[in-house]
Amino acid sequence: MTEKMPNQPSPPSQPWMASVLTLFPDMFPGPLAQSLAGKALAAGLWSLKVTDIRPYGVGVHHKVDDPPFGGGPGMVMRPDVMAAALAAASEGLPDDTAKIYLSPRGKRLDQALVRELASRSGVLLVCGRYEGVDQRVIDAADLTEISIGDYVLSGGEMAAQVLIDAVVRLLDGVMGNPIAHQQDSFENGLLEHPLYTHPRDWGGKVVPEILLSGDHGRIAKWRHEAAIALTRERRPDLLEKWLKSEGKEDHSKGKKPTK
Ligand code: ADE
Fold first, then answer.
1. What global pTM score does this model have?
2. Is 169 a catalytic residue?
């Protein structure tokens, strides 16, 4: 008999899973088969289930869409078809799976939400095409709408891939050095400081001297200050939030950020 160590969280019995509903199953795994996410997929650190919506379409032509009631351009994905495909895609998924409809109307995906999704057993991702999905199936299945930004894609598939990629790199065992996450942009509420590598002198452009000093305390301070300056310059909204969370005020308003 194996005894459980006290205070040791038991590893999840199933890897994190993305169950994707799409009219274009050939788009998966697509770029997710490459690099970090691809290696992690091959190693079984996460899993992917892709459900083709088309076979659940109605009639001989497996029709999945119809014009919107009330008029207007384009077509709407039918609720009966989507519900049948959703039932198949949801089979056997753990209760805490996040059920998501990728849509430009949704809550904006950010690093905090990515972390939250990584802490669950997985996600069910509904990818819409055409004008979108009938509202009744969004309500009935209690789908959370998530957007990856204020622009309109021609379907949810690429948005689903962005979401999956962002989550997968946070899963245990996927990145060689988990400490690296702490330096990622957004992880601590700031943009990441600039990075430099060899050569030290690249056509007269030299690496900041302090990074060559070997003084880890001074390097950490320089990086922290550079992260603040960069965030102030590019994302004053983020800096404001960060200062509030740190209980600080910005005393350098109007100052030029150091390059
Ligand atoms: N589908 C179309 N546009 C989208 C967006 N910006 N985010 C998520 N899903 C989408």
1. 0.91
2. yes
**Cα separations in angstroms, 86 against 10, 15, 65, 124, 178:** 30, 21, 15, 9, 34
Ligand 1 midpoint to CA 102 (Å): 6
Domain spanning 180-245: CATH superfamily: tRNA(m1g37)methyltransferase, domain 2 (1.10.1270.20)
Find out if CATH 3.40.1280.10 is the number for domain 16-168. Answer: yes
Domain boundaries, the chain: 16-168, 180-245
Binding site membership of 109 for ligand 1 (Cβ less than 6 Å): no
Length of the chain in terms of residues written:
259
Residues 6+ apart with CB under 8 A from 5: none
Residues 6+ apart with CB under 8 A from 78: 58, 63, 64, 65, 66, 134
Longest dimension (CA), the chain: 72
Give nearest CA residue, ligand 1 atom 2.
153
Render pLDDT for 14-51 as a digit per residue (tens, 0 to 9): 999 999 999 999 999 999 999 999 999 999 999 999 99
Average pLDDT, the chain: 93
CA of 164 to the centre of ligand 1 (A): 14
Q: Is 153 in the pocket of ligand 1 (CB under 6 A)?
A: yes
